[in-house]
Amino acid sequence: MPVRCSVAHIRTPAEIAVHPTDGAPEHQLYLMCEDIEATITELRAKGITFTQAVRDENWGRVTAIALPGGGELGLYQPRHPTALELPSAAKAVRGKTGGKTGARKRKVARKS
């Protein structure tokens, strides 16, 4: 059964990183959050299972969510600056660009 949830601590916009490897090719997907402990608490209350304890990496605090199909989805709280910390990005995310961001979202929603 699919689990739907919204979490107040998940951040947008997304970031992408590409890193070289000496081993086999690999890909990972992570959701970014502002407060990993609060996000874990909120997700566990909604029935989400975690496959890893929170661990410290040089780029952030990391854990993983169990997916229904057997995979994992990473979750991390970054230590590095993010796009949200740029003044123009913060305004756009919060809808403080003179209403243009909100109007665009409404148009997209009507087409669906």
SSE blueprint and pairings:
Layout (H helix, E strand, L loop, with lengths): L29 E3 L3 H10 L9 E3 L2 E7 L5 E7 L8 H8 L5 H12 L1
Parallel strand pairs: 1-4
Antiparallel strand pairs: 2-3, 3-4
Concise structural overview:
The chain is an alpha+beta fold and 112 residues long. 27% of the residues lie in helices and 18% in strands. 9% of the residues are buried.
Quickly give the CATH architecture of the largest domain: 2-Layer Sandwich
Number of helices: 3
What is the share of helical residues? 25-40%
CA-to-CA gap between the ends? 24 Å
What is the name of the CATH topology of the largest domain?
A: Signal recognition particle alu RNA binding heterodimer, srp9/1
Instruction: Report the biggest beta sheet as strand number plus sense, adding barrel if it closes.
Output: 4 strands, mixed
What topology, given as strand order, has the largest sheet?
A: 1-4-3-2
**Rg (CA only):** 16 Å
Total strands: the figure is 4
Broad CATH class of the largest domain? Alpha Beta
User: Poorly predicted ranges (pLDDT <50, ≥5 residues)?
Assistant: 97-112
* Category from helices, strands and their pairing: alpha+beta
Average pLDDT reading: 75
Shape: globular
List the secondary-structure elements in sequence, H or E.
EHEEEHH
How many structural domains in the coordinates? Answer: 2
DSSP strand content = 15-25%
